[in-house]
């Protein structure tokens, strides 16, 4: 059974930091590209960051560059998102995604991040 379980969300003040984790099981984690997406109320889901299965190549949405860092630990089947200098506009539900070129595509249930004073 495939599972992606996000954790680490919560309420943080503007300028603060959070580290999200996505613990995965039930599939060959190391062979999947892993991504973080987010969806704010009334908006479409958008890509935050992606890390490749091989070489750990990363890519970020422009508004997250320099503030967010995606990383993965294949030994723990876990992907992380370090978020610094958080802004109110970063408030959203953050989702973990696993995808392979064969078409396999898995999603977590999401974790809420709220940036507010």
User: Cα distance, first to last residue?
Assistant: 40 Å
SSE arrangement, N to C: EEEEEEEEEEE
Low-pLDDT runs of 5+ residues are: none
Bin the strand percentage. Answer: over 45%
Instruction: Assign a percent range to the helix content.
Output: under 10%
What would the principal axes of the Cα set say about the shape? globular
Radius of gyration: 13 Å
- What profile does the largest beta sheet have? 7 strands, mixed
Give the helix/strand class: mainly beta
Tell me the number of helical segments per DSSP (H or I, 4 or more residues long).
0
Q: What is the typical, i.e. mean, pLDDT?
A: 96
Q: Count the E strands.
A: 11
Report what the structure shows:
By secondary structure, this protein is mainly beta. It has strands at residues 3-7, 10-12, 18-25, 33-39, 46-51, 58-60, 68-73, 78-83, 92-99, 105-107, 111-115. The strands form two sheets. Strands 2, 4, 5, 6, 9, 10 and 11 form a seven-stranded mixed β-sheet that branches. The model has no long low-confidence stretch (mean pLDDT 96).
